[in-house]
Protein: 3-keto-5-aminohexanoate cleavage enzyme
Amino acid sequence: MMYKIVITCAITGAETTRKDNANLPITPEEIGQAACDAYNAGASILHLHVRDKDGLPTQDLKVFKETMEIVRRKCDIVIEVTTGGAVGMTLEERIQPLQLEPEIASLDCGTINFGDDYILNTLPMIRKVAGIMQDYGIRPTLECFDLSHIDTSLVLIKEGLIKAPFHYGLVLNAPGGVRYDTETLGFLIKRLPENSFWTAIGIGGKASLMAIYGAISFGGFIRVGLEDNVYYSKGVLAESNAQLVERAVRVAKEFGCEIAGPDYVRKTFKLKDY
Ligand code: ZN
Structure:
């Protein structure tokens, strides 16, 4: 199939707050609308976290269900739920939304420091999540914050817990993960299994923008959104998730790339019913 650029929008995340950017969508309605706006701007995957009534990150099944129903009523965007959750959550908490059988879910491929905190993902934990995803027919996005995470994913592939087509989320510049630079991105890509798909995820204003160009240069996919970066440019806050998607679309088109729609994602990643 002809290569098109898949754009994921990570619209809320677990760490970003309204203090960081007042335009952050938090309620199920707000998230639904922001997802729809991102979709209309050119995003074909929604990376979904939800918040409780106090605006704090939650993996509560009911909130996920309500939010996913609103998103699906509004548009045809492919939903990728997080199983990373937030710092300090147990694995049982984190994997709750898998019961809703989303088309894609993120699968963290290793433990990382996260600022002064850490996110724990031991090999048995990763195996467990991968096994559940396989049972439900959910395509994992293999989130790697470090080279060793890619090596860990190879162990799971060898064990038959992850099957092709593989989709990696290469997270660069998270506080504790590998830094963003073009050389590092290129090196990580070289270590992926053959014919893998990958999305470059740059955390913070500069890395997020550079990752758009990195993805285009190396033939990967793009992720933008207020989870990863709250700025549009240095010192200027983004007005919305859609604004960040619009720029990614504009840049990709400048390079002559075509933007993928959800059907392309479903076919390429061999999601359920395809
Ligand atoms: Zn996330």
Q: What stands out?
A: The mean pLDDT is 97.
